[in-house]
Write a structure and sequence with these properties.
With about 300 residues, the protein is of the alpha/beta class. Helix content is about 30%, strand content about 25%. Strand 4 and strand 5 form a beta hairpin.
Length: about 300
């Protein structure tokens, strides 16, 4: 649509004497803006269509109606926290209070507990704390306040060693004689505990086992690599002990046995044959620690051998 607008356009004429102004009445056509009207109409139509579409839809609910796609997790179990009285009641739990325990490194063990006075032979009664808290009795021969090789002695009767502990001590070694522990794995605990003493060099440790203590000594040293030298008196276990040699080699081994002790003799021969560094000493009779009483030269042989391998 177009509309007409009337306008007056002045014309000015000039002469030498006066100025004459003449108005001419003119009419012009001015186009109007139709785009806005068109867009407005289209918007109203679009809104009307949306209203019609929405009329058939269900109104949203206030709470979700969709179900979970996975099973619901069960709640975590409740942990019941009990104090020491509720756990143990009046039961007495054995143990010890030792400030040294707080300073131990990871994997360390408490040193032997001094539980008596020095004996005439220079031995100190001690107790070693095993991994399960069991206290193992023993005798300790300390050689000064500086670190020297340490030797552990294992036998069914810790008093059956005769002069061997004193001879090792006189040769410049610290010596620990203990009762047989319950398990071969306890040998590791005993050796680590022994090496915590300021009088023991943890890099130079030897073990001597007699009779059933010999079997336990080989089992323990096969597990614990810090056992540097091993002496066995009458080991007995031909079916099981040879299988331990791959783990024990190439460390040195000294074996002493009586030829009349058939099972122990056959076991000793088998072990010596599987070792890369073995010395086999045989006698006519005897068994375990009793060989030391029957053959005094065996004590000297053991002391000399330990000195060579731990102090040489």
């Amino acid at each position: 649509m177009r509309r007409f607008v009337r306008q007056f356009v002045p014309f000015i004429f000039r002469s030498s004497s006066k100025r004459v102004i003449v108005r001419r009445d003119t009419t012009c056509r001015v186009p109007t803006n139709t785009t806005f009207s068109h867009n407005l109409n289209m918007s109203l139509i679009f809104l009307a269509l949306l209203a019609g579409c929405a009329a058939g839809e269900t109104a949203p609910t206030l709470t979700p109606t969709a179900g979970l796609s996975a099973p619901t997790l069960a709640p975590s179990p409740t942990v019941q926290i009990l104090n020491s009285d509720e756990l143990y009641g009046d039961t007495s739990i054995g143990g010890q209070n030792n400030p040294v325990a707080a300073a131990l490194p990871s994997g360390g063990e408490l040193p032997p507990l001094m539980s008596g006075t020095l004996t005439l032979g220079g031995a100190q009664s001690i107790q070693t704390v095993l991994a399960d808290g069991t206290l193992l009795n023993g005798d300790l021969y300390i050689n000064g306040d500086f670190r020297v090789p340490g030797v552990l002695l294992l036998a069914p009767d810790r008093l059956a060693w005769g002069l061997l502990p004193l001879q090792l001590h006189s040769a410049g070694m610290s010596v620990l004689v203990v009762d047989l522990p319950p398990n071969a794995t306890d040998i590791t605990t005993i050796l680590i505990s022994f090496s915590e003493l300021n009088a023991v060099d943890p890099a130079r440790l030897g073990v001597i086992g007699a009779d059933s203590g010999a079997n336990m000594a080989l089992n323990g040293c096969a597990i614990y690599a810090a056992c540097d030298a091993l002496v066995l008196l009458s080991p007995d276990g031909r079916d099981s002990l040879p299988s331990l040699m791959p783990n024990f080699n190439p460390r040195p081994l000294l074996i002493s046995v009586a030829q009349t002790d058939t099972e122990a003799y056959l076991t000793s021969v088998a072990l010596a044959g599987l070792s890369g560094d073995a010395q086999l000493v045989t006698y006519d009779s005897g068994r375990g620690a009793s060989l030391l009483a029957l053959y005094p030269d065996l004590t000297n042989t053991i002391v000399t051998w330990m000195t060579e391998h731990l102090k040489g």
